[in-house]
Please model this.
Amino acid sequence: MDFSAILSQFPNLSTLAGQFFVGMSRAMILFVVAAGLTVVMGVLRIVNFTHGTFYMLGAFIAFSIAQWLGGSGGFWLALLIAPLIVAALSFVLEGALMRRIYDQPRLMQLLLTYALVLAFNDLIKIVWGVHYKSMANPIPGSISLGGATLPSYNLILLAAGPLVALGLWFFMSRTMMGKLCRATATDREMVDALGINSKQVFASVFVLGCYLAGLGGSLIAPTTNIVIGMGMGIIINAILVVVVGGLGNVWGALVVSFIFGIGESFGVLFAPRFALVFPFLIAATLLMIRPSGLMKSVW
Model:
């Protein structure tokens, strides 16, 4: 056996480092979206398929704002404004429809949220058309990390995940609203008996989760084609992250997002035809080892 021939086909260290940082960038976007979903599922106890749609809306709205404002600062203003617009839309949706299904069977929740996905897809076709959109890189150039060349903008993506994790941890653990969210998730009847409006708490949690979905879409917009249906792929992975990481556990979602991102990235390198299967194999393996989730549910 010619080991030198085998070793010559193995990727060099710079290629491996490049795949690692690409995987990390994808993982952080997945975490930002999954973090919003884990809060919604942890407190409201609903599987919200429209979460991926709000991610897609964030990308389309960020594209439109950046195009309208123009210039180098257009994207950064879009990054601030687009998630807020998504949050405002989610507030209207929550008051009009979502709060009516919190106490309904899971099947009713799935039917409504999936129907909203189809409705929003058609709405996006009307507003933005059926062709994909693309944005210019807001930070041109590249940097060298571990011998790998990485687009400079990816540093923003790498920082986004830890910042969102710390922000959510502080909100849930150190603020009165966060404590109310945890109390409502644990015992809604007791919270109502104490004179606290649980409906307002639920609305706040839903809006926060959708804001994070919109933020994820806005962050990913300069790095990918913005297309109708882009939310379906990420919502499946986000649900897997929430389940495997532990319901409501932000740190569990961060760890599993990292595992998924790195697994898929190296899957593209070593087995490109099966790369999409890697997150599901990882999820199945982790659930066999820890059926209750990698980290315990916090609520």
